[in-house]
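Take a specimen:
=====
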Amino acid sequence: MQLLPGDWWGRSAYRQYKDQNSEKRYEKASKDALATADKIVEISKEIGRSPAQIAINWIRQQQAQSQPIPILGARSVQQLTDNLGVLDFELSPSQVEEIAGFTDFQLGFPWEFLHEPYVLELVHGKTYPNLEFHR
């Protein structure tokens, strides 16, 4: 049973609805966030990967700063397959730096709190400087 006529998705009314909602969706985004998104799209076009793959790999490649775990937001098998395509390539160091230059990525709470000297001493006592991190 077909609920909508086959050409419904192609109608100009739908495109207009979609465009209006896209504007609403991004109206609260900061200029920095939009600039970052534009840079991600630019890099994705340069190397022939999706913007989602670029963003996920950028997060994956932040291991020197912290131990982030990208969370995939796939809603379909096609999106999941695309997201898992990040395992086939890495961004160049210059591409990672280009994206980093556009974003003011803050780890925030709880990372910043847990790395305060008084919290480290409270949790580890005087042993914290002796710990080896193997990650």
Summary: The chain has two domains: 29-104, 106-135.
